[in-house]
Specification:
three-stranded antiparallel beta sheet, 2 domains, globular, alpha+beta, two-stranded antiparallel ribbon, Ribosomal Protein L22, Chain A
């Protein structure tokens, strides 16, 4: 069901579990998008933005975002720009990472907080940056997502025990 390019990308993952996760989530995404656009999953063609954000060539009004982590995947589809992110809550060097990712106000919220708060801020930020099509190339430490930027709706949630997720959706189209 995957394109030759997707198959080659899957083979670049050296860890078999990560390779399998990419294949399964990409195939599920193709099935979902084909059900919404018509046609077969294999026939879907993707174009990619400057930072690699995919979009459907033949169904440009449909926006989608996919995220996966060990044991869980999350997909969002809308008629406007959106981004999703999901992460497993785990031990992480939050104090070392925070200055490169979070604004000073967001870093202050992390002081004395549980590691879960780090992931709440992280998934909100990543979902928003994915919606913009920028990813972390956009100087994330200059962008706040708590509260959501004007014209955006961002919600974080717990999709399963031990995970945090977020969706960012452009509201003023």
């Amino acid at each position: 069901m995957l394109s030759a390019e997707e198959q080659a990308r899957a083979l670049r993952y050296r860890v078999e579990a990560v390779q399998r996760r990419f294949i399964v989530t990409r195939a599920a995404l193709r099935r979902l998008l084909a059900s919404l656009c018509g046609g077969s999953p294999r026939a879907l063609r993707f174009d990619y933005g400057a930072q690699g954000k995919p979009r459907l060539r033949d169904c440009p009004h449909l926006h989608f975002s996919l995220s996966h982590t060990a044991g869980l995947a999350l997909c969002g589809v809308a008629n406007r720009p959106l981004g999703v992110d999901v992460e497993g809550v785990r031990e992480i060097a939050a104090a070392r990472i925070a200055p490169f990712v979070f604004t000073e106000a967001e870093q202050a919220r992390l002081e004395g907080a549980q590691r879960e708060q780090f992931f709440v801020l992280w998934v909100r930020k990543e979902a928003y940056l994915k919606a913009l099509g920028e990813g972390f190339a956009a100087s994330p430490q200059r962008i706040t997502t708590t509260p959501a930027p004007p014209g955006w709706w961002i919600a974080d949630f717990i999709p399963a025990p031990g995970y945090r997720a977020a969706v960012a959706l452009l509201t003023n189209v």
